[in-house]
Amino acid sequence: MNGKFYGERFRLTPVEVGKEYDVEIVETSRRGEGIARIQGLVIFVPNTQPGDKVKVRITKIGRRHANAEVVE
């Protein structure tokens, strides 16, 4: 797990930038990106659809979500 400071709060995130994870896309965002979840954290994955099982690399971590790209 990776920790980040947000204001005076310390928040643990279940993913790290640059690491790869196997995920299943469970829904589509309003912008058309696939959405996966890792321990409750929303992961946005472009060019995917619900039902896709993909390996992703985390590219950015925000306060409430992360962005990833498909690597496989």
Fill in the keyword field for this structure.
72 residues; mainly beta; OB fold (Dihydrolipoamide Acetyltransferase, E2P); 6-stranded mixed beta sheet; two-stranded antiparallel ribbon; 0% helix
Give the structure's gist in a few sentences.
By secondary structure, the protein is an all-beta fold.
Report on the architecture of this protein.
- By secondary structure, the chain is mostly beta strands.
- The chain has one domain (about 20-70): OB fold (Dihydrolipoamide Acetyltransferase, E2P), CATH 2.40.50.140.
- It contains no helices and eight strands.
- It has strands at about 1-5, 10-15, 20-25, 25-30, 35-40, 40-45, 55-60, 65-70.
- The strands form two sheets. It has a six-stranded mixed beta sheet with strand order 3-7-8-6-5-4, with no helix packed on it. A two-stranded antiparallel ribbon has the order 1-2.
- The radius of gyration is 12 Å and the shape is globular.
Taking all Cα atoms into account, the compactness measure Rg is 12 Å
Q: Which overall shape is indicated by the principal axes computed on the Cα atoms?
A: globular
What is the second-level CATH architecture? Beta Barrel
In which order are the strands of the major sheet placed?
3-7-8-6-5-4
Oligomer: single chain
Query: If helices are DSSP runs of H or I spanning 4 or more residues, what is the number of helices?
Result: 0
